[in-house]
Specification:
Radius of gyration: 19 Å
Largest sheet: none
Order of helices and strands: HHHHH
Distance between the termini: 14 Å
Number of domains: 1
Shape: rod-shaped
């Protein structure tokens, strides 16, 4: 639940404390907030995955449009193509991260997460909205 606002995380912690003290209403509210936060994370991941697929497809289509052969034997070839194709800084960060591929791209390609978890990439909304 890392993409959620500090206020939502603090609210959940407060509700959990009240629930542990026996407050049934707080327990229900905590359960609903936790469920909403999990759903929000899943939506953010799907949105990031879709963005990776669209940008990758656009890069491949551009190659075809220019009459260039499409040969992507491994994920490094894809990263090289995307590094050449992507111009907008936000797209570059979302897809390339630190250069080894963002967490979202690694997830779409079925690669393990980066060891430090700091490869950058697309982040969802900060979760300031309430359920």
């Amino acid at each position: 639940m890392s993409t959620h606002s500090r206020a939502n995380r603090e609210r959940l912690a407060a509700l959990d404390r009240l629930a542990e003290a026996g407050d049934a209403q707080a327990e229900g509210e905590a359960r609903r907030l936790r469920h909403w936060m999990i759903e929000r994370d899943q939506q953010d991941s799907k949105r990031q995955d879709d963005r990776m697929k669209v940008l990758t497809g656009a890069a491949v289509l551009e190659l075809l449009k220019r009459g260039r052969p499409v040969s992507l034997p491994d994920h490094q070839a894809l990263l090289d193509l995307l590094a050449e194709f992507l111009i907008r800084p936000a797209d570059r960060e979302a897809v390339l991260g630190d250069g080894s591929g963002s967490e979202a791209l690694r997830r779409v390609l079925g690669l393990p997460s980066s060891p430090d978890g700091l490869s950058g990439g697309a982040q969802g909304a900060d979760g300031d909205a309430t359920p």
